[in-house]
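A quick word before the example. In earlier lectures we treated sequence and structure as two separate objects. From today on, think of them as two lines of the same record. Here is Xyloglucan-specific endo-beta-1,4-glucanase A written that way.
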Amino acid sequence: MAKFTLAATFFVLSTMVSAIPTLGVRHHTEGDKANTHPAGTSTPHTVLTEQWASESIGNGQYTLYNNLWGAKVPGTSGSQTTQALSYNDAQKTVSWKTEYNWQGNPHGVKSYANVALEKGIRKNINSISSIPTKWSWKYDSVSNPLTADVSYDLWLSRDPNSGPSSASSTVEVMVWLSNRNAGPAGSKIATAKVGGLDWALFKGRVGTWDVYSFVAASEISNYNANLLPFFTFLRDDPQIKLDLNQYLVAVQAGTEPFQGSATLTTEAYSVAIN
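And the structure line, produced from the sequence above:
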């Protein structure tokens, strides 16, 4: 994620309460903690505990974020830690886990612990031929009930130097692989066939940008696909006609907990932009 300050927007969005996720501002301040470990070493990775803690992974290939952006909302209590487990330089694959226990403000997102791609981003979507990704993940422990999603988060802007959830963001595209008692921003507008799978497509508005959320019909814990067709679907749909003459400024993969406790482990994750 890019580092920027949208204090006013963050306060308004993070205090929203509704029957759907309060999606949107997932940002960092300039005081974020960053730690770097060389790829291929056995050096233990740092346990990220602070709200905006982060760690560079694989010589700058990815950044791992704790990103507890909703943790300070009144009525919220709990904690979360995130840690990289390993990195395979040959395959550009990272494994990591996050553990959380959140209570209160049940309809508000507490965090978005995630891995963000750092190399190859900020390209015009029209110049991209594919966005191959593999993601194998599992819940090691989970409370009953749990309200959370496991999702990709991709951001568009007309400014190639923009970061996600910024004033210049235009479109946020989420791909939900898991939905446990949560619901995307906005309302359902269609059923989409992308990559041979059926997705419920939701559209909402957060801040200055539109949010399109593709929600899988059933949980997908091993995902191997190309993310580009989600954008071309939005372009080709006659009711949406999304303008793709924009820049892909962020590609993230993580989890949004609302309420409950869980340990989520990513056994292997990779993404690239071609």
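Notice the following. DSSP finds two helices and 15 strands in the chain. We will return to this example when we discuss secondary structure assignment.
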